[in-house]
Design goal:
The structure holds 2 protein chains of 2 kinds. Helix content of chain A is 36%, strand content 24%. Chain A is built from 8 helices and 11 strands. A 9-stranded mixed β-sheet of chain A has the order 1-3-6-7-2-8-11-9-10, sandwiched between helices. A two-stranded antiparallel ribbon of chain A has the order 4-5. Chain B contains 1 helix and 9 strands. The mean pLDDT of chain B is 86. The chains are: A alpha/beta, B alpha+beta.
Chain lengths: 247, 150
């Protein structure tokens, strides 16, 4: 039986790298942040994800076809983005494969960036960033660096599975969630997430261009946001508003 | 000839199947009504903004994401009892070329959409604000009548 998800490598993959996940999610925070980092660091497309579980789509850039779910790399960084909302049914096998692949490439740490929906987001000037980690040592490190720890709650979607699979395999993983709009693209939230990222990884990125281009990004990201919103509903993303029971 | 004896299905199984079928039908209807049209309209030179409706016990809150607009040009109009139209002119015209798209021709100078409100509302008490490019429309809900608990 063929594998449900395959990663096709196009160029040599850096080892001992930091891996970033920026998949479409609340406010497209991870996708916007990671796409900006890829552009600022001028990373190359090194691999892509292929699966029958994903829609039969190619994205044309400069007239050439690209898989929507791609992996970039260089300078000890690997970054995953998707220009297409990942169907809820494909999330499990895709995230499992990405985690297995990261382990095989001896990735130092996986850092998944996402959004945390905030009802009155338009009233907040600077969104806060919260984080979670796959093990106690990492969590202590985040605490010492002054990051806000997400102590209780549910996490749904790609970040949730990164956390689960990395904890199972004893891989280091951190999830950064910036307060954001639930269903509007949020470049400001992406910018604060990048700033917090600099506290964890040695990765200083100037966010001024991202903030300047914010409105244009919101204009262009409408369609992917709309489709992502539908998949978030399928994933029961609204469960993140629920209160967990811990007696 | 042997017959397999069929287990009689309970009313709950039948209801559960009915609810599942209805949910599937409703999802298909929503999908067909909303997904297969572009988020732009060449004729009216407009883009459809991302828009959402929240219904609370007291009010209905409609929000719309309106990037790159001239705030003074925002217009919210009630069309009938349950339909509102949102329009806003953009700071500059946007062409398909601006998105690197060369196989389509057209330019857009405004955001335009109509939103149907799912519950009765007091349109005359509508409040509109614009913060960080997000339009917020608050509509108090119409009260019905009270039923005494015996």
């Amino acid at each position: 039986m063929s594998q449900p998800v395959r990663i096709i490598e196009k160029k040599p993959i850096p080892t001992e790298a930091l891996m970033l996940h920026g998949l479409p999610d609340v406010g497209l925070v991870g996708l916007i942040a990671t796409s900006y980092i890829i552009s600022e660091l001028d990373l190359d497309e090194i691999a892509y994800v292929d699966s029958d579980l994903l829609p039969p789509v190619v994205v044309l850039h400069e007239g050439l076809p690209h898989a929507p779910l791609r992996i970039y790399g260089g300078k000890n960084i690997i970054a995953t983005i998707s220009e297409m909302a990942i169907p809820a049914a494909a999330i499990h096998p895709v995230m499992r494969k990405l985690t297995d692949w990261a382990q095989s490439k001896k990735v130092k740490m996986i850092l998944s960036i996402g959004g945390m929906p905030l009802e009155n987001r338009q009233d907040i000037k600077e969104p806060k960033v919260f984080c979670a980690a796959s093990n106690r040592d990492l969590l202590d490190m985040l605490d010492k660096k002054g990051l806000n720890i997400l102590k209780e709650g549910y996490m749904v979607g790609p970040q949730a599975l990164t956390m689960r699979y990395c904890a199972e395999r004893k891989l280091s993983a951190i999830v950064l969630l910036a307060q954001s709009f639930y269903n509007y693209p949020d470049p400001e939230a992406a910018a604060v997430a990048i700033n917090e990222l600099a506290k964890i990884a040695e990765l200083k990125i100037d966010i001024s261009k991202l903030l300047e281009k914010g409105e244009e990004i919101r204009l262009r990201a409408r369609d992917i946001m709309k489709r992502t919103q539908r998949e978030l509903t399928q994933m029961k993303k609204s469960r993140e508003y629920d209160l967990p029971l811990y007696v | 000839m042997t017959h397999k004896r069929q287990r009689k299905r309970s009313i709950f199984d039948i209801m559960s199947d009915y609810v599942e079928d209805f949910k599937t039908w409703a999802e298909e209807m929503i999908e067909s009504a909303t997904s297969e049209r572009p988020s732009w309209d060449i004729e009216s030179c407009s883009l459809e903004p991302l828009c959402n409706i929240f219904v609370t016990t007291k009010e209905v809150v409609v929000t719309a994401d309106l990037p790159c607009i001239e705030p003074k040009t925002v217009r919210v109009e009630a069309i009938g009892e349950d339909l509102i139209e949102i329009e806003a002119k953009m700071k500059r015209k946007v062409h398909f070329d601006d998105f690197g798209i060369t196989h389509r021709k057209g330019e857009f100078s405004a955001f335009l959409c109509q939103t149907r409100i799912p519950v009765p509302i007091k349109l005359e008490q509508m409040k509109v604000s614009l913060k960080h490019g997000i339009l917020e429309i608050r509509l108090p809900r119409k009260k019905g009548y009270e039923i005494k608990v015996e």
